Amino acid sequence: MFPLRDNIPSRSPSYGMWLIIIANTLVFILQLTMTDRELLRFTHVFGMVPARVTDPGWAHWIGYSPNWTMTLVTHMFLHAGWLHYLLNMWMLWIFGDNVEDVMGTLRFVLFYLLCGMGAILAHLLFNLDSPVPVVGASGAIAGVMGAYLLLYPHARVVAFVPILFLPFFFEIPAVIFLGIWFLIQIVSGLFSLVFQGIGGGIAWWAHIGGFIMGMALVRIFQKRGACLHCTTLEQWFRDHSR
What is the pTM of this model? Predict the structure, then answer.
């Protein structure tokens, strides 16, 4: 399922969301100007390499700087290619504006960064010895999706699924769309633990960690009385279980 739009209108300009999209775009343009060798070095310096954190001796031998803490933030502004970049920015554009509506710009940007850091720490926990750099905004965006789930479970998402090369369009409750998405991440994450090295290079546990982080932080960052379109997940389930 690929989401096209939701039915919750924005109530105010989404400056924070656009600031994040612009920052990601500028870094991606910079990446496009690099040679393969320069890009590899850039990715290893500013991406998160779990073994760099857990094995300082190895990291020193390889030549990494001892200061890896910046990569908790910098990794989420790098992308591995056009598809990676476009999919992440599209998902942020669909779900980010409504989450920013209830937080305000500064709170939303801080919330986003904390979700990204929580996501990469979850990935680190399950990939302690990995020498592969992790890049991308998907963990932070998963946090935005987790917040959206709690704020707007009653929303509806227009999505499509390609069937025999033809797009099939349909509308689905956001709680079901996001629930299915999260379930896929969990199943894929568990599968990657059982079959090490099989996962398509996707940081499943970063997605899981970011989603949970977003759900945990949303009420802290939500402004009182700011969510006119919101309901609660519990209320949604009560309404649909009658």
Answer: 0.90
